[in-house]
Amino acid sequence: MTLTLHHLGQSRSERIIWLLEELGAPYELVVHKRDAATRLAPAALADIHPLGKAPLLVLDDGRALAETGAIAQYLLDRFDIANRLRPVPQSPAWPVYLEWMHASEGAVFLPFLMNAYLRPSGLMDSPLGQYMAAERAKILAHVDAHLAAHAWFAGETFSAADCLMGFQLEAADQAGAISEDSPVKDWLERIRARPAHQAMRQITAKD
Ligand SMILES: N[C@@H](CCC(=O)N[C@@H](CS)C(=O)NCC(=O)O)C(=O)O
């Protein structure tokens, strides 16, 4: 039995496809379509894991693993023994890497995700909408300052932290939220030049 990744179209689970491609790990892919009206995941995902969200990684023994961060750590511990995609623990880059790995689904994700709920509800100018806009600006300033000083999220070397930050920043770029003089533009160009990112884009083009 091999690993099976359950991916939801146009979702954050594309980061795990990219990571699997970077690792060169063997996997089978199952693509699920969002409901056209609600944009929610189909019931098929809830048959695999109670939360019914993507990504889900079904392991060799049939256990379904949820949570992007946990899946990334599982894959790295299993397929990145040589630490190609993460700094060595105890190196100065290690805590920097850890912070961005967790920020990607933590502080960074929510203010961008809230756009998807607040905009259709006409709540962008509400107190919550204004709070989330201020949070997004703070996060983008933090990301800008980091990428102005370092080539990659973990420092001077590409790592899995770049994969985990990719979805949010590509979405922000698509929404026109990244200014032309932001170092994020250059980082986006460099991630898009990576063969594994291009392989992921070929797969997700059908989403
Ligand atoms: N914290 C989870 C979040 C998973 C999640 O919310 N996935 C979204 C994809 S962007 C989803 O499946 N949404 C569809 C739904 O909730 O029905 C993770 O890191 O994987």
From TrEMBL:
The keyword S-adenosyl-L-methionine does not apply. The keyword RNA-binding does not apply. Keywords: Transferase. Residues 1-83 form the GST N-terminal domain. PROSITE patterns: GST_NTER (PS50404). One of its GO terms (molecular function) is transferase activity. It holds the Pfam family GST_C. InterPro entries: Glutathione-S-Trfase_C_sf, Glutathione_S-Trfase, Glutathione_S-Trfase_N, GST_C, Thioredoxin-like_sf. This is Glutathione S-transferase family protein.
